[in-house]
Amino acid sequence: MDESTTLETRDLNLWYGTKQALLDISIRIPKNTVTALIGPSGCGKSTLLRCFNRMNDLIDSARITGQILFEGDDIYAGHTDVYTIREKIGMVFQKPNPFPKSIYENVAYGPRIHGVRRKEVLDDIVETSLKRAALWDEVEDRLHEPALALSGGQQQRLCIARSLAVEPRVILMDEPCSALDPIATAKIEDLIIRLARDYTVVIVTHNMQQAARISEYTGFMYMGRLVEFDRTQRIFEDPTEELTENYITGRFG
Ligand SMILES: Nc1ncnc2c1ncn2[C@@H]1O[C@H](COP(=O)(O)OP(=O)(O)OP(=O)(O)O)[C@@H](O)[C@H]1O
């Protein structure tokens, strides 16, 4: 594996009980880029995303074969600590899910769990994370107010700040804008593009225009398979596979 690859799967298969949801997926996610996973409903996008930080471990019926590598290391190797994996590979969900605590406490939560106690250090982490998530200017005067009083878009940026606070290297995003209005969506899209300077971002999206706007690489999935993976421009303008072309031209959804 070369250093420009952050995440990689090799011949990854996943079953939920007897139903196979991923088939022979081999993909390399390049470092410090936005990679979009697109494809029709039920094709396995979220399942693949959840493999990258072992979130599927939480589903009793899920079983995998094949390999998943993070920076060259097998994330299922015996010595691997799943909590460290999820710290390095953070996740942001479809529906913003801040804790019912203050804005400050949401961001300080992860660092506190990792043993950060000093107030000045926590203050600094909270400010830096909120700035990186493009939320600081909107909340700096009300850090101790409830996070749930924020708008949906602000809550989603807070969730991004919360994941940044533990210094991840990857941020996985599962349809992060689907519950948001167009203005809030545009802000998150701008943020995602900026985050990719420092982090590797993998985003699942139903929205092909969104994939085209923000990603450098795109994987098109269909019925549990990765049909095609390439530069986004190539996928949208000159795909190799007919199935990809049919999907991106809207011949099926
Ligand atoms: N926890 C689960 N238990 C059993 N089957 C599941 C589970 N999660 C997903 N599946 C099934 O696995 C397949 C892939 O689902 P997945 O959610 O990964 O697809 P998706 O492409 O993300 O879909 P969508 O765009 O609708 O979110 C589907 O057939 C789905 O019903």
Hetero compounds: adenosine-5'-triphosphate
Radius of gyration, whole Å: 18 Å
CATH topology: Rossmann fold
Structural class: alpha/beta
What is the CATH class? Alpha Beta
Shape: globular
The helix content is 25-40%
The portion of residues forming beta strands comes to: 25-35%
The number of domains: 1
Mean pLDDT score: 95
Termini gap: 34 Å
Name given to the CATH architecture:
3-Layer(aba) Sandwich
Report the count of strand segments: 10
List the helices and strands in order.
EEEHEEHEHHHHEHEHEEHH
Say which CATH homologous superfamily is assigned. P-loop containing nucleotide triphosphate hydrolases
Number of helices: 10
Largest sheet report:
6 strands, mixed
Pick out the low-confidence regions.
none
What strand order characterises the main sheet?
6-7-8-3-9-10
Keywords: ATP-binding, Cell membrane, Membrane, Nucleotide-binding, Phosphate transport, Translocase, Transport
Membrane topology: Peripheral membrane protein
Domain ABC transporter: 7-248
GO molecular function: ATP binding; ATP hydrolysis activity; phosphate transmembrane transporter activity
